[in-house]
Amino acid sequence: LVVTGSLITIVPLVIAFLCLQKYWQSGLAAGAVKE
């Protein structure tokens, strides 16, 4: 009910967050090397 609604909103956010985290880590590593 409320849980289902929150799951529908949370799951895509978690997936997006995980994808961003991977991208971010590689980006941060590249940025650290440049600096």
Helix content: over 70%
Structural class: mainly alpha
How much strand?
A: under 5%
Gyration radius from CA atoms, angstroms: 15 Å
Helical segment count: 1
Backbone shape: rod-shaped
Give the beta-strand count. Answer: 0
Rounded mean pLDDT score: 84
Low-pLDDT windows of residues: none
Write down the secondary-structure element order: H
Protein name: Carbohydrate ABC transporter permease
Keywords: Membrane, Transmembrane, Transmembrane helix
Transmembrane segments: 6-24
Can you give a write-up of this model?
The model has no long low-confidence stretch (mean pLDDT 84). The longest helix is centred in the middle third of the chain and has 33 residues. The chain is built from one helix and no strands. With 35 residues, it is mainly α. The chain starts with a helix and ends with a helix.
Topology:
Layout: H1 2-34
Protein name: Carbohydrate ABC transporter permease
Transmembrane segments: 6-24
Keywords: Membrane, Transmembrane, Transmembrane helix
List the main descriptive attributes of the protein structure presented here.
35 residues, mainly alpha, 1 helix
Can you describe this structure in just a few lines?
It is built from one helix and no strands. The chain has one helix at 2-34.
